[in-house]
Amino acid sequence: MRIPALARAITILAAAFAAAGAPAAGQGEPLLRAEFWTDLEPVSAAGEPWPVPRDEAARRLLDEAAWVFGGMLWGFEFEYAPLDRARGIEESFTLEALGSIERGDPRLEPGQARLSGREMRAYVDYRPDAAQAALLASYRDEPWERAQGVGRADWTRGWAGRRAAYENCLREAVRAYLRSLVPNKPRLARGRVVFERPPSIFVEGGFYTVQARARVEVLELRPYVVY
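RE: above sequence
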């Protein structure tokens, strides 16, 4: 039976985290919790193991959880140039993470792993400290505004396709917010974007698909200049 072996894989990681020292419970600090999953038999790039060993699958699951929670706590700087065929301008979108949860952080706590088809699934918790909790609370106020998006990336891209789907989702959220903000597309927009809550990711029609709610702060809008 494979389920106990899967459980052992993630339990080993949890024990390693606990050995680094457990955090004290915060007073009134939020607990971030979400279910994450990773493929055991994804499309693999040359040189990658297939099927994915259980310990590697557990690491990938925790790395994705850390990235998502980091996107909720610190978010990303973005730079976005919309597509403009009339002017011959291609769309571009870049993201830069403003903070990260390091691998092995004892506050990142995986739960019991379980097998679902060809996937490993587990709930993961992260307890922010007081400063991080204050950051989370700040995103509820101005100048932050709600936006949502759906992003996709080809499933055949494997592990890299998952991250691309998340990033495409944030791009769509930013684009949707900009459309509500200004009547004419800008030449360039810069700002910050955070996940409002953990996004969902699933496979649909051969694509990794991510749905997310976000908060957006626009710091710069450059319009096209008419001469």
